[in-house]
Amino acid sequence: MEWLNFVVCLTFAAFITDVFSSAGNEWTYRGAKGPEHWHLDFPHCGGMKQSPISVATSEVIIDMERLTPIVFKNYDTSSSVDYTLENNGHTVQVDLNVKESEVTGGGLPGTFVAQQFHFHWGATDERGSEHDINGKHFPMEMHVVHYNAKYGNITSAINKDDGVAVLGFFFEIGRYNDHFQEIINHFRQIMYKNDMVDIKSMPLVQLMPAKLSKFYRYLGSLTTPPCYESVTWTLFNETIEIAEEQLVSFRTTVYENVKDDVNYGRDISDDFRMPQCLFRRRVYASHPDLQYAIDTTEDPTAAGTSSQPLIALLISCVTFLLLSM
Ligand SMILES: *[C@@H]1O[C@H](CO)[C@@H](O)[C@H](O)[C@H]1NC(C)=O
Ligand SMILES: *[C@@H]1O[C@H](CO)[C@@H](O)[C@H](O)[C@H]1NC(C)=O
Ligand SMILES: [Zn+2]
């Protein structure tokens, strides 16, 4: 397993020198235009600061001085203007048409304006999140995408080093979640790619967990092409609860094809990219509780704990680094 991952990392390294870029802007999560091939059309996808990553909790650096609580502005107010819910063929995305919610502090390099949020989910409960903690994946991950206010809009911020901040939230199966149901209720209006519908806006705080002071921080990229390495990532420790039946709506109601495509139809599930090599980066944590050794007494057959391959991936990435110095 380890040698295999080592080869994977060496292959990644080879991509770094890729400077060719062919025409075409289509990409998918499977097949000939899948993640292993993204770098051919989108060279940034072969870079050394890619996302997502696997967070190894024993390796994180605690930095309480810098990673103070994030300050949320207008996250608890409701916009008078509707949100737009869209199926873009890769995910379901909610666009915030009025840019009034902002985050600052928490070690973020500026003030960041909320632009949109979207989801990554699996066909089963054991997978779906893009990031993982010690190899444990969650059934869904939400990304709230913000642009740095100093760039004025997402278009000019998206490829700047300090252009984007994404807040990442993991989901766990639990109680029925009324707030997400308001979004899910509209899924049958956006069944196919490019479908969109206006939905009533809601305070963003309703979609987030209560305690937000414990988080991981690292520098990475967009997890979809063009994979710009412009993202300051924040991954929160507290998870969002959602009922299994609600996740089933994500899995079965929205499709990656346009309506007229009679030859092809597939639901969007498994719209996640595999963890990328960390290379020279470090992951920081806002609280000492977030640095812990992997609990080896945990039942290895338990759902969602397939840590071995990813730990091997991390080890091989470090090995690659040492060999290349
Ligand atoms: C985004 O900001 C840039 C730079 O300020 C500006 O030139 C561009 O027109 C803006 N784009 C949109 C879509 O507003
Ligand atoms: C949150 O932190 C606790 C330890 O303080 C850990 O057991 C739990 O798995 C963490 N969850 C996430 C999503 O990081
Ligand atoms: Zn995302």
TrEMBL record:
InterPro entries: CA_dom, CA_dom_sf, Carbonic_anhydrase_a-class, Carbonic_anhydrase_a-class_CS. It catalyses: hydrogencarbonate + H(+) = CO2 + H2O. Residues 1-21 form the signal peptide. Its cofactor is Zn(2+). Residues 25-287 form the Alpha-carbonic anhydrase domain. It is found in: Secreted. Its main location: secreted. Its EC number is 4.2.1.1. GO terms for cellular component: extracellular region; plasma membrane. Keywords: Glycoprotein, Lyase, Metal-binding, Secreted, Signal, Zinc. This is Carbonic anhydrase. GO terms for molecular function: carbonate dehydratase activity; zinc ion binding. It is an enzyme of class 4 (lyase). Reversible hydration of carbon dioxide. Belongs to the alpha-carbonic anhydrase family.
